[in-house]
């Protein structure tokens, strides 16, 4: 398995499944055009881009271009890299018909071709011994124990965290757990708790 520093954005769950078998990094499935409606997810992508960098890997079709352009306008260019699928004619096994353009999407591209696309995009490949940036295990129970859920002023404390991280104020507790896990380590989490106390 290849370790990459940057988080990777893909269009759908099958693309994510394919990449999960090849690359060890955070892979975010934007559910196609769902990215246009999901402000929480866009805020998460901006935070990941700031902390780790972001690689956009969409299908080589019109829908992939629309999603790519949307992300390009939402994330600073210095935090964004673009990986492009090679133009390979065919259809994915799970589909009855090929796509409108007749090209394979991310899920159908052979693994070596996807790795080559990530290299061309300038992905940061990590040593097997290098620690993975960010990320630690956080649970809702830990949030409760740390006074961020189910206690007096826990909502206020969460709001201060959201404000500090530049995230939407309506972010759910589950999404907050996900964001903190993906962008902080234990020391960063402890420092954040001290700042909001």
Which features would summarize this protein structure in a list?
197 residues, alpha/beta, 8 helices, elongated
State Rg: 18 Å
Class per helix and strand makeup:
alpha/beta
Summed over residues and divided by their number, the pLDDT gives a mean of 85
Order of helices and strands: EEHEEHEHEHEHHHH
Uncertain parts: none
> Count the helices. How many?
8
Shape call: elongated
Largest sheet: 4 strands, parallel
What is the strand content? 5-15%
Summarize the amount of helix as a percent range.
Answer: 40-55%
- Per DSSP E runs of 2 or more residues, the count of β-strands stands at 7
Distance between the termini: 41 Å
Walk across the major sheet and give the strand order: 4-2-5-6
Briefly, what is this?
This protein has helices spanning 13-20, 39-51, 62-74, 111-121, 140-145, 154-165, 173-183, 186-196, and strands spanning 2-4, 7-10, 23-24, 27-29, 54-58, 80-84, 125-126.
């Amino acid at each position: 398995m290849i370790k990459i520093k940057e988080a990777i954005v893909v269009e759908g769950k099958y693309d994510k499944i394919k990449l999960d078998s090849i690359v060890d990094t955070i892979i975010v499935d934007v559910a196609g055009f769902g990215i246009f409606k999901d402000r929480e997810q866009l805020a998460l992508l901006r935070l990941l881009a700031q902390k780790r960098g972001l690689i956009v890997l969409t299908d080589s079709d019109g829908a992939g271009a629309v999603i790519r352009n949307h992300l390009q306008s939402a994330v600073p260019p210095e935090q964004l890299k673009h990986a492009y699928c090679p133009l390979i004619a065919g259809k994915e096994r799970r589909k009855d018909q090929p796509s409108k353009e007749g090209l394979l999407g991310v899920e159908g591209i052979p693994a070596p071709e996807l790795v080559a696309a990530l290299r061309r995009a300038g992905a940061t490949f990590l040593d097997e011994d290098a620690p993975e940036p960010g990320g630690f295990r956080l649970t809702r129970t830990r949030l409760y124990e740390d006074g961020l859920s189910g206690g007096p002023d826990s909502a206020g404390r969460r709001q201060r965290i959201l404000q500090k991280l530049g995230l939407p104020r309506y972010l759910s507790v589950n999404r907050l757990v996900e964001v903190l896990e993906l962008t902080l380590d234990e020391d960063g989490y402890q420092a954040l708790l001290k700042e909001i106390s």
